[in-house]
Specification:
Strand content: 5-15%
Oligomer: single chain
Strand order of the largest sheet: 4-3-6-5
Number of strands: 13
Number of helices: 19
Largest sheet: 4 strands, antiparallel
Structural class: alpha+beta
Distance between the termini: 32 Å
């Protein structure tokens, strides 16, 4: 990022001398008829102070800051800031810098810590899933009714595993609903939330996710044992193999095991004999893993190993025979080291929108958001009458200037909604619900866009940060033109801000005001 090019040569120190002004944010300089406010000066000064730049006197700092701004003004006079390349690059930076201001940071932080806490524990679960492919309201209602019927049988004392084998509509049906151990981030959020609220032996109520309706049973809970590095030697057993083939495969793995007990090198044996070719070339080594990433048979044997170098006896899984060796183990990393991984994980499920939705709710309250329910009802009815949302639906409403919603003295009409819909796709299923959802989505986007457009006015820190990026880009470009193009041997790493910041530019007026 180009912010590191900025003012790297400027002094650090306390900012006490910036206080005491009578104006809220007085103008302290004017460069090329552009006001420079105290807040910008103080922001950059304090930032460099935190970076422990060599101390300089106030006069020296003012001179450096003045010359820096003059150099930026020179770049502006050359029109660098008006080029499409400059504008597009700055807009890209602004998009990224704006993101933290468009979510509720307290919600985001709470969810991140919740996810980390759930990574510290493993929960052993089974489930019954109903309605995997349900789409229409009628289908979903029927699926939910079926799930409620199954739950009633469980509460009446029927065996969970038997009912899972009979009714569940996913692959776990083959294992009587058994899913194994999960932890935070391993499942969709509503499933995770419900599972972690249960104690061993308890069964959940109906849990709705994007896949349908779940009934969850928790078998046990245990602390996260950490991450493990295993190697294995594998002999494949084809699905549906005859008893003769199965016996032959077992004989092969037991012969390998006897050689290992006699002192044969595990890695060499894996390279020569393992039928898992992907790991065999690495001496049988697998990636770092944690619980819940293997089939149960493999995991039960592997996680029972206590000491580095220990190996299991031959273990049969649905895929074949294994001999497993414990290579290494490590505890879960501290929260701060996991934060970026947790953030990526949260972005993939419902948590990714929860902090944003909390901010939208706050903004709607702050800006006096109002939705015209009569217009929403009218639009939903039209979708129901037509049975779809397509070009004919849009044509029917595209001239309607009735207000649909408003906030902060801005009104958005039905015609605006028609324009919004025209950028989407035709919908023939659940048309009224789709219209209602799209009205909400449009309102959220408009209020977030409004907030984004006014970040500089609302948040001085954001305004100063954007000025820093903008000025840094200008300073780099003019320095590149005037210095680095004449000295091409200077490496790209030397793009940090030069101490030779430049002299006063002809034709640019500078006014230094009292502090």
């Amino acid at each position: 990022m180009k912010n590191k090019w900025l003012l790297a040569a400027l002094l650090a120190g306390n900012s006490w001398f910036l206080g005491g002004a009578t104006d809220v944010d007085p103008v302290i300089m004017r460069v090329n008829n552009k006001d420079i406010h105290k807040s910008e000066f103080e922001y950059i000064y304090n930032k460099n102070s935190q970076q422990q730049i060599d101390h300089k006197s106030l006069d020296e700092y003012v001179t450096l800051f003045k010359n820096y701004k003059l150099k930026v003004a020179e770049a502006e006079a050359m029109g660098i800031d008006t080029t499409s390349a400059f504008k597009n690059e700055l807009a890209g930076y602004r998009e990224e810098l704006a993101k933290p201001y468009l979510i509720d940071a307290s919600v985001d932080d709470r969810l991140a810590h919740e996810a980390y806490d759930r990574m510290k524990e493993d929960v052993e679960v089974s489930h019954i899933l109903i309605g995997l492919n349900a789409r229409t309201p009628e289908e979903r209602a029927e699926a939910k009714k079926k799930a409620e019927s199954v739950l009633a049988e469980i509460k009446a004392g029927e065996d969970f595993e038997m009912l899972a084998e009979k009714f569940s509509e996913d692959g776990s049906r083959q294992n009587k609903g058994y899913l194994g151990f999960i932890r935070g981030g391993r499942t969709v959020y509503p499933f995770e939330k419900a599972a972690f609220a249960l104690q061993a032996g308890e069964v959940s109520d109906i849990v709705e996710t994007q896949f349908g309706y779940h009934i969850i049973k928790v078998h046990s809970r245990r602390p996260n044992p950490g991450e493990f590095l295993f190697s294995h030697i594998m002999i494949l057993v084809p699905r549906g193999a005859s008893d003769e083939v199965k016996a032959q495969k077992e004989s092969e793995i037991r012969a390998i095991y006897e050689e290992l007990k006699s002192g044969a090198d595990f890695a060499t044996m894996a390279k020569e004999r393992s039928e898992d070719k992907a790991s065999a070339v690495r001496g049988g080594e697998l990636p770092w893993v944690s619980s819940g990433q293997f089939v149960k048979e493999f995991e039960d044997a592997a996680f029972a190993l206590k000491n580095k170098g220990d190996i299991t006896e031959p273990v049969l899984s649905p895929y074949g025979w294994h001999i497993i060796k414990l290579m290494d183990r490590r505890d879960i990393k501290p929260f701060e080291q996991m934060r970026s991984e947790i953030t990526r994980m949260m972005a993939r499920d419902e948590r990714g929108s929860m902090a944003r939705n909390a901010m939208v709710a706050k903004l709607k309250n702050d800006y006096g958001f109002s939705l015209e329910e009569s217009q929403r009802a009218k639009l939903m009815k039209l979708a129901g009458d037509l049975g779809k949302v397509d070009s004919s639906y849009i044509a029917a409403i595209h001239n309607d200037q009735s207000v649909l919603f408003s906030f902060e003295n801005h009104s958005y009409t039905v015609a605006d909604f028609a324009s919004f819909l025209s950028k989407g796709r035709d919908v023939t299923v659940n048309a009224p619900d789709y219209v209602s959802t799209m009205i909400g989505y449009m309102a959220d986007m408009e209020i977030l866009d409004f907030e984004k457009a006014h970040l500089e006015d609302k948040y001085p820190d954001f305004r100063n940060l954007m000025n820093e990026y903008r000025d840094g880009m200008l300073l780099f470009e003019i320095s590149n033109r005037e210095v680095w193009k004449k000295h091409r041997k200077i490496p790209r790493a030397c793009r940090s801000f030069s101490r030779k910041i430049g002299k006063n530019t002809n034709g640019i007026n500078l006014i230094i005001k009292d502090f």
